[in-house]
Amino acid sequence: MTKARGEVARLFKSAIGQVGNAGGEVYPGYPGLVVAGGDLRSMTWGFPLVLKGKTGQPLKPRPVNNTGADKLASFMWRYSFQDRRCLFLVTEFAEAEGEKGAKTRTWFRLPDQGRVRCRGYLEGTPEWGPAYSMIMIETCMNVADVDDRMPVILRPQDWRDWLDGAPDDAAILCRPYPDVMVKEQTTVPWVKRASTEVIYT
After folding, report:
1. d(C-alpha 71, C-alpha 15), whole Å
2. Does the residue 185 lie in any domain?
3. What is the CATH number of the domain that holds 72?
4. How far apart are CA 9 and CA 195, in angstroms?
5. Strands of the sheet with 182-189, listed across from one edge
6. Is residue 173 part of a domain?
7. pLDDT of residue 106
8. Predicted confidence band at 15 (pLDDT cuts at 50, 70, 90)?
9. Among 30, 51, 42, 38, CA closest to 5
């Protein structure tokens, strides 16, 4: 996210809450900016999955940073989707491209770089405090040659329906992005610090 927080808050007509040090490149388990309940605030990207070791000892939680739109009715995601939807603020997102062991970052963004782009995602408050997780959908034609899934992207006219509409109406918005996107291939190695299929700024 490269926009100033005040600019983002004005765009969404939101109050600035506790935003912490969110910004720059965002990885699973790290803070990102979210609009929820009329406020712009920082939350951890990923719902914590609590794991146990071989002897039953608790391990460090692993962030579950996305789910497919076809899983929204499952127990893990149902109530977040019905009652705690939010907007997850993004300038551009990267997918891994290339051969295994030599993958690089390929970035996707909307043509108008002066506008903050949004995706609709889930919002919850598990062990890490306020946290969120993105919704993935089958890919659009702009991303299809890199991955078969991509984040849900919402156009401005859909923001209010996503945040405040009925769950059935919000579910209709979980669809491939229909408009043009800009693709930028790079030689930057794919992220090694976390196992993830997407990062964003």
Report:
1. 32
2. no
3. 3.90.1680.10
4. 31
5. 182-189, 104-109, 93-97, 198-200
6. yes
7. 95
8. very low
9. 42
Q: Does residue 190 fall inside a structural domain?
A: no
Nearest CA-CA partner of 72 in 167, 159, 199: 167
182 within a domain of the structure (yes/no): no
Q: What is the CA radius of gyration of the chain?
A: 16
pLDDT per residue over 90-113, tens digit each? 888 999 999 988 999 999 998 876
Domains in the chain, number? 1
b (16+ CB within 10 A) / e for 119-133:
bbbbbbebebebbbb
Three-class DSSP labels, the chain: CCCCHHHHHHHHCCEECCCCCCCCCECCCCEEEEEECCEEEEEEECEEECCECCCCCECCCEEECEEEHHHCCCHHHHHHHHHCEEEEEECCEEEEECCCCCCEEEEEECCCCCCCEEEEEEEECCCCCCEEEEEEEECCCCCCCCCCEEECCECHHHHHHHHHCCHHHHHHCCCCCCCCCEEEEEEEECCCCCCCCEEEC
Q: How far apart are CA 174 and CA 15, in angstroms?
A: 26
Which domain range does residue 64 map to?
1-90+113-177
